[in-house]
Design a protein that fits this description.
By secondary structure, this protein is of the alpha/beta class. The chain contains 4 helices and 8 strands. The protein is elongated, with a radius of gyration of 25 Å. The protein starts with a helix and ends with a strand.
Length: 186
């Protein structure tokens, strides 16, 4: 009797272990498409935003995907770009809601002059000229009331520092916040 009783828990353990493994496999197979969907959704949101016709070097768009909800962040010069970004993201299959927190920058002639001066100062540097290529350059220059914020990504910390120093040297700039990321910090 002891022998039979001792073997029951072992069989029970094997049965439970097999059941848990099967349940985990089913859960994994269920969650895998959801994870792939989320990755595809992130790529699609990014694609829709960077291909907006009026999105440029003086605008900054960012986003967060939580399941099927997308939250938009950033700063733009034109109200139309804010609404176009929301429309483009809403049109993506699988997006159930869009929270548009994009800030429209105030109209300002002096800020426009600072934008252009900072642009020229940054892109006149030989080691930064390569970032000027492409439809949407990776260095975004945001100006609000004379304060400059640099957003985007560059190849190395030397390029980040050069861009910050160039922006700081422009007349009419009150302060510079250098949020540029380097490829090594991705």
């Amino acid at each position: 009797m002891e022998r039979v009783a001792g073997s029951v828990p072992r069989r029970l353990k094997q049965s439970v272990s097999t059941g848990i493994k099967q349940a985990m496999k089913k859960l994994f197979l269920f969650l895998l498409p959801l994870a792939m969907f989320a990755a595809d959704l992130v790529k699609e949101v990014r694609h829709e935003l960077v291909t907006l016709p009026y999105y440029g070097v003086f605008d900054n768009l960012a986003y967060r995907v939580d399941g099927s909800k997308v939250t938009l962040f950033g700063q733009v010069r034109e109200p139309k770009l804010k609404s176009d970004a929301e429309k483009a993201v809403k049109s993506i299959e699988g997006v159930s809601a869009v929270d548009n927190q994009i800030e429209v920058m105030p109209l300002s002639t002096s800020d426009d002059q600072v934008r252009m001066a900072v642009y020229r100062a940054i892109y006149s540097k030989p080691n930064l000229q390569r970032y000027q290529m492409g439809a949407v350059p990776p260095i975004h220059i945001i100006v609000k009331n004379g304060d400059v914020t640099l957003e985007g990504a560059v190849a190395n910390s030397g390029d980040k520092d050069t861009a910050g120093i160039a922006a700081n040297g422009v007349g009419g700039v009150h302060k510079v916040v250098n949020n540029l990321r380097t490829d090594s910090s991705k």
